[in-house]
Amino acid sequence: MTISVRALCALALALSVFGPAPLAQGDPDTPGSVASSRGPTPPAPALTPSAGSSVRLYFDPAQGASSADLVRRALTSNGELAAARMEIERARARLRQASLRPNPTLDFEQTTGRLTGSAGESETSVGLSVPLEAGGQRRRRIDRARVELEATEAEVADRERRLAAEVLGLYAEALSSLRELEITEGLTDLDTKTVAVVQARVNEGESAPIELNLLRVEVERLRSRRALTEGRLQATLLRLKVLAGVPPAEPLRLREELANSALRRLAGPVEAAVEAALRTRPDVRLARLTEEVAEAGLRLARAQGSPEVSAFTRYTVSRGSFDDTPVGVLRDNDRLLTFGVSVGLPVFNKNQGAKAEAAVAISQARARREYLEAVVRSEVASAYARYEAASKALLAYEQGVIQRSQDNVRVMRAAYELGHFSVTELLAEQRRLLDSQRDYTEALAEQYRALADLQAAVGAPTEQQ
């Protein structure tokens, strides 16, 4: 009768941690959820931290921050992004400067004969010259500045896309550490309870002291692993705070779970996603605009090779006197108004170097655009492949690994209480379960990261449940 009670205690301990397996539910396209076609094999249960669990410090399903919350906050509060957005204002200022016409030139000239013995001779002239931008230079300059403004806006939009992808990647890393922390704490609690049972058996002489020591070593090993996992989680949350502009003293708790994330797989085949990426991604648009900037630069260089033309006018007052005349001193006052055009002759400098540089810049921008388009195709296809591989791995773990490993540990604990297994065999199986859970967590995280990278590769906004 005593053995039966111990066996029941062991089963109760195992069920208190691993629990019965719930049926799989969810959208087949949702990362971490399983379609009904996969059968009743479940993913990991939802996080239900106990009162003494440290997981509750980092997880709050009601008031915690979702991935979309952190992305939105990063887009509004990230310091580096705010500094990058100032480039748009600088580009607008350059456009305003490019639209300004050249300033006129005011000339003043005074001529006197007092120093050369002709005291009665003097001339005063005031002139005004206005540069005329021939060859449509002003229009070409404005066109280039306008395209540069659009390119700057596209560059900032690409920074936003990459920042959102970085936030989602760190969020997946935090969820992975959170799940591992929960699993490690559960096993630690179970082993701690088992230590009390084995201690009683050692006191009664039914078990060897080495079994108790081995179990205590395993408990300490799990506690060490838990401390490392929690430290990794805290470091990831700090990096998330920096990206999202969250003050260091403000607590940050996660709302989502790795097995039930809010990300959704984009509908449609790979070819449709590639087409959408080439059409909407801001870095592709930036590459095309850079090519347009180079073409506008060539048109401006050609216009600047035109002759420099300036129109001018001059008002002159001339005074003269004649002493040796029969009637005495005669004075002559003349007022003249002069008009003219000054034309610079492009004999030597025809802006040849600038034209050649602009032509090379066009070829360079085109080559970079073509390379980027190939990279975009590769990124989309790679994210799709990673998602499919992670989904297959999850299916294998959910149907053939996790549940069986949990059942093995559950049965071996009960059998250990009956004396059919040694504590080393129980600990070995428990470590296999922990390794399987870590691999399963990594597969979940990889699926989450693949979806985040797919959204970044396509340039799609974050979609929520």
Brief sketch in words of this structure:
The chain has 465 residues and is an alpha+beta fold. It is built from ten helices and four strands.
Account of the protein in words:
This protein is of the alpha+beta class. The protein has two domains: 53-100 and 137-299 and 347-390 and 421-458, Outer membrane efflux proteins (OEP) (Up-down Bundle), CATH 1.20.1600; 103-132 and 309-343. The protein contains ten helices and four strands. The chain has helices at residues 2-18, 67-77, 79-98, 137-203, 209-244, 270-280, 282-304, 352-400, 402-417, 423-458; strands at 105-112, 122-132, 309-322, 330-343. Strands 1-2-3-4 form a four-stranded antiparallel sheet, with no helix packed on it. β3 and β4 (330-343) form a beta hairpin. α2 (67-77) crosses α4 (137-203). The chain is elongated.
What is the fold's blueprint, element by element?
Elements: H1 2-18, H2 67-77, H3 79-98, E1 105-112, E2 122-132, H4 137-203, H5 209-244, H6 270-280, H7 282-304, E3 309-322, E4 330-343, H8 352-400, H9 402-417, H10 423-458
Antiparallel strand pairs: 1-2, 2-3, 3-4
Helix pairs in contact: 1-4, 1-9, 2-4, 3-4, 4-5, 4-7, 4-10, 6-8, 7-8, 8-10, 9-10
